[in-house]
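Below is one protein, fold included:
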Amino acid sequence: MARFIGKVFGKAKTEASRLGSEKSGLETVAASWNGAIKVQMRVNADGNDCYRVVMIPWEGAGEYRVIEEGIFK
């Protein structure tokens, strides 16, 4: 059963989406020539929905840095 949903909007006329479960979680990446942002959603050991937003290198550009992480309450 889906617990998370990710949607992508861009040049195409329709949106694309992906589902994530409690077991799989959900991870998305949005990139440019200067780096990328990765968003991860998962369920922690206490059953809480958690998120993590990270800047990551992309195609040799950018740096790794955790921007934010936390629990949805």
Strands lie at 4-8, 16-20, 26-32, 35-43, 49-56, 65-71. The CA atoms of residues 4 and 20 lie 5 Å apart.
